[in-house]
Specification:
Elements lengths: L1 E6 L6 E6 L1 H10 L16 E2 L13 E5 L4 E5 L27 H14 L18 H6 L3 H23 L2
Antiparallel strand pairs: 1-2, 1-3, 2-5, 4-5
Length: 168
Amino acid sequence: MYNGTVHSLSGNTTLHIIADNSTVVSLLSSILNCSSLLTTTTSPPPVPYNGSSSYPPKPEQAIQYYRASSIVLTLDGYNDTAALADTSGTSQSDVPLPSWVNTNMIDCVNQTIGAAAPLINGDNAPATSPASVSASTRLGAPDLQVTTIASLGWLLYALYYLMASSYM
């Protein structure tokens, strides 16, 4: 896991992007479209996540998850205690963002990450024509519909086998 840090120009908002190294590098580059709201116009290099550093980003500081939770955006100074609570059978709402944050910067970064890191073939992902995808990519990634149907078939077979063996 790697950590990429971005600071707001107003100085009151520090965000961390936590994901694998290549994803963080790519996202930091994409976030430069928010440069009018950031303290730097160059992409700072990501650093390996260090949970034992003085002030590491923590789970309760998460303000957004992306791409099936493989990417997280955290905010320094935010403490969503609902994220740590045992909510067995109860619902607890998230703590709102503090009033001091630069919401324009957060919105720009959030929208940029959401567009730059979609789920593969998700609703907002652009359709890719087979001709533009290399053969190695096509061979390496199974068709999602075929995989779903095969998994469902296997699950039904397993349930049938369990039901049949319990009646014997």
